[in-house]
Amino acid sequence: MKLHKASAAVAAVLTLSLAATACGSGEGSGSDGDKITIGIKFDQPGLGLKTPDGKYTGFDVDVATYVAKELGYEASDIVWKQAPSAERENLIKNGDVKFVVATYSITDKRKQEVDFAGPYLLAHQDLLVRADDSSITKVEDLNTKKLCSVTGSTSAQNVKNKLAPDADLQQLGGYSECLTGLENGAVDALTTDDSILAGFAAQQQHQGKFKLAGLKMSDEHYGIGLKKGDKDLQSKINKALEKMKSDKSWDKFVKANFGPANYKNEPAPEITEAS
How much is the pTM? Predict the structure, then answer.
């Protein structure tokens, strides 16, 4: 009788262990039951912004919500996770998110670690400077200036390695920190994609303080990052993006998020990331 009870106890422990393992594997894929975890930026107005009241707004948020719905998830099923530039690959590889929609430029280097779907937006690298600053009219002018960008951003390396190698480059944790430095004169320019810069410049508290330099220093194809080798998810996301363009949702999202900044966006790009 005692042996029977002991065996039953062992069986119960094994059952609980297997159940815990199953739950763990679900979380590791960026989904947990009826929920899906998506990585976005929390500090980019017009693209990915967490507002003081806990809501999430921006073009990337709208795109991610649309894609999630096509995958079978309602907006209420989404768990938003902050995805800083330097952490995007890790979040994907560790299974902390199902996918990342966070001004994530598709590059050959990144494609060694993760796969992409899309692209869904074509942006260009530019500079944001103070409205009264007329000393920066071309990229070479940065060689005598203090330039700010975000750790892990391709924009910073593009300037330092190719365009203005003598620029005094400062890499900080977020664009908001760079913007503060630009406003108080600690840095002379902020570089990243024009879509991001336009979002900051259009904020009510910043209107009239900054301006875009209007330099197209690179082409940035924004893609949706996902775990390497997940061709099924890549295909499903690409289909969702195609539908988003064909039913005019893409145009609606662009107008809603970039319209106030008079951002001159490129047309919706062709899908190139496919198996």
Answer: 0.76
